[in-house]
Amino acid sequence: QVQLVESGGGLVQTGGSLRLSCAASGRTFSSYTMGWFRQAPGKEREFVATITGNGGTTYYADSVKGRFTISRDNALNTLLLQMNSLKPEDTAVYYCAAGSSTAQGMGLSPTKVINYWGQGTQVTVSS
User: Fold this and answer.
1) CA within 13 Å, CB half, 28
2) Quick one: how far is CA 83 from the chain centroid?
3) Burial degree of 36 (CB within 10 A; 0-12, 13-18, 19+)
4) 80, 73 contact by CB (below 8 A)
5) Pairing mode, if any, of strands 4-7 and 18-24?
6) What average pLDDT does the segment 109-122 reach?
């Protein structure tokens, strides 16, 4: 059993930055591939970024490459998402997830491999 709690969302102007955190409970955090997903009003939930258990491999959606960075600190059971150069289209509820997969596999087929979801944190980028 793993519980995930996101934090760090808020209001920011176009071009600004935010850092999201996901705090995880559980004794085997380092064994999970982790990911960030987001859902805007009226749209499907979409992949943002994923990272393997040891942090050795990452995978990003084309829409965030070069702007967002995913990382993790297994000693603190924490997943992070640094978001820079934010755009209005980044506005969404951001969710943390954990599962068993390669980083790319979680991004491409999340339904098949994700076992746990957080409750989400709102990010709003104003124009």
Assistant:
1) 8
2) 10
3) buried
4) yes
5) antiparallel
6) 95
Q: What's the angle, vertex CA 70, arms to CA 67 and CA 72, rounded to 5? A: 155
- Residue 98's nearest CA partner among 7, 19, 29 is 29
Query: Which helix or strand (DSSP H or E) is residue 57 part of?
Result: none
Which ranges constitute the DSSP H helices of the chain? 103-108, 110-113
Tokens describing residue 20: 């999201």
> Residues 42-60: pLDDT tens digits?
999 999 999 999 999 999 9
Structure tokens at 113: 């491999």
pLDDT tens for each residue of 23-42 = 999 888 999 999 999 999 99
